[in-house]
Amino acid sequence: RKDPEVFQTVSEGLKKLYKTKLLPLEEHYKFHEFHSPALEDADFDNKPMVLLVGQYSTGKTTFIRYLLEQDFPGMRIGPEPTTDSFIAVMQGDVEGIVPGNALVVDPKKPFRKLNAFGNAFLNRFVCAQLPNPVLESISVIDTPGILSGEKQRISRGYDFAAVLEWFAERVDRIILLFDAHKLDISDEFSEVIKALKNHEDKMRVVLNKADQIETQQLMRVYGALMWSLGKIVNTPEVIRVYIGSFWSHPLLIPDNRKLFEAEEQDLFRDIQSLPRNAALRKLNDLIKRARLAKVHAYIISSLKKEMPSMFGKDNKKKELVNNLGEIYARIEREHQISPGDFPNLRKMQDQLQAQDFSKFQPLKSKLLETVEDMLANDIAQLMVLVRQEESQRPTQMVKGGAFEGTLHGPFGHGYGEGAGEGIDDAEWVVARDKPMYDEIFYTLSPVDGKITGANAKKEMVRSKLPNTVLGKIWKLADIDKDGMLDDEEFALANHLIKVKLEGHELPNELPSHLLPPSKRKITE
Asked: How many domains does the chain have?
């Protein structure tokens, strides 16, 4: 066995592995006609992409506007179905729109293979380019609202679900948007979600416009949404749902403001981590693709093997297509392949009807061994390189737009709450409750103005907090590290216990505003 190849960068490694080891197998067994088109260099080089999917008027375009904090070319917002095109919102030096037909011939953009969906789709596909700090790290794909009934199926002129599936394979995040007033998942929307199967790890759900309903109704709406999703997304784990109001207007019912802020923070953190995990995601998708290509090769070669050389080909073809489930089971047994790696049975049967089985290739073990070798050795090399690249680069995060608004200043998440309470006050915040803490302090028999750890423990364990938390509070409060607490340190320990009991996190280091006034000189 030859040594694994050496690569300089992850994207260069992925390109080379795909072209030299996986692509020959895909071409040999017509993988591109059945599953997805060949990958291009741009697929490995492009920025992370976020795909927004939802019924009309759930706030998809407004969500992009909210993230970018500026309008983008081609943007239309309204309560009726307005966005009728797929809009790729990307970074550009000047504002402008690139139409679909021009977009699919640009080798620098990862959209070249979309020309397979024809003119009906390309006339409804544009790229909006504009200079924006958010778009320096990610690109966003806005999609037409999913309509219900015949409108969705007939008047589109192209296979909507197939286009979404194409995007789902290549994006880093799929965000499904729901309106708190329109929870009904139509058959068409359900079909679209099913087309995104196998990409559940990329999916996140946003329950938008949640500020328009009362708390009690919001709980019911959330329950109803989870119940509806449970019937469609076939995973035992619960899909992550973010609740909020993603636009820059005042909240209609501000009762749940704290909840919306925390949820928005979580969602932003998730989107901000995309550039950091982009290389790993591409690697993961290549492995997924390699496993599918391997199974596909076994299926096609098995069908070829069963075909007669001269007569009765049509009858045999019908019989093989009908018994495809048994062929799956046999391949599973013979090659120890997990059933989860096989393509959808019904879809495969439909695609096989139109194929000429006599043109299929027999099993070529050398091609399969090359892919096996790639998965076993080369991918392991690339994993090491991914980690190295991550550690060498400064932490990549999405910056600008709505991501900046809550980073600094008093409107940051949790500013002035918990351990941050009193951050801007002139006097020490603990002093407010110090007289109460002093009464307890003097009942614990202090010696030279200090109480021992054992005496402090008797009082601190009354909070019923676990020892690990109390140990952390002790470390933060014992500023001079003498193993004892004076009245100020004791008051500080009680303040931190109160912070924890109110449900806030403890800081890892004591913030400067919590330092007792008499100790500030010591630390300086």
From this structure: 3
